[in-house]
Design goal:
Layout: E1 3-4, E2 10-11, E3 21-26, H1 29-32, E4 33-35, H2 38-41, H3 44-48, E5 50-54, H4 59-65, E6 71-76, E7 82-86, E8 99-101, E9 107-112, E10 123-126, H5 129-149
Antiparallel strand pairs: 1-2, 3-9, 4-8, 5-7, 6-7, 9-10
């Protein structure tokens, strides 16, 4: 378990890293996701259009003008910025980051250690989700029993 300070900083647990165990269900980006279009992910900008405000003469202005995207309004704001309003139905500027999950089973892992590291190097991958859940429950019960014994 990770505890955070009021400022959002991680506070190290009282137990050493070697006394910890991490249970993780993973869907790695490289193997479980693929690039997707704005339409596939229901991108709000693609569906409804969007506006962006930039500094005139900035690299962003050159990127917008050479992007091939259509805007219907180009105006200078009262504070000297340039505002572009884009029509719906075209890729947004974050289109290259859109991803959809592939139909692949998650990876069910148990690692030695916690967010501070894995000092033992132990990593076990369960082949069935039910086994991972059973392992997790058994581990929690073992901790509860140790606490109860004091």
């Amino acid at each position: 378990m990770t505890v955070s300070s009021p400022e959002g900083q991680r506070i190290a647990p009282l137990l050493p890293c070697s006394a910890m165990q991490t249970y993780q269900v993973a869907s790695p980006l490289a193997t479980h996701w693929r690039p997707a279009t704005c339409a596939e992910v229901g991108c709000e900008h693609h569906q409804h259009g969007w506006a962006t405000t930039i500094l005139p003469g900035s690299l962003d202005e050159g990127t917008i003008r050479s992007s091939g995207r259509r805007w219907v309004v180009e105006e200078r704001t009262e504070d000297g910025f340039l505002r572009f309003v884009f029509t719906p139905g075209q890729p947004c500027f974050r289109a290259s980051t859109h991803r959809v999950l592939l139909d692949r089973p998650e990876i069910f892992l148990v690692r030695g250690g916690d967010w501070r590291g894995n000092p033992t190097g132990e990593v076990y991958q369960h082949t069935r989700p039910d086994d991972w859940v059973d392992d997790f429950g058994t581990h929690q019960q073992r901790i509860a029993d140790q606490i109860q014994r004091g």
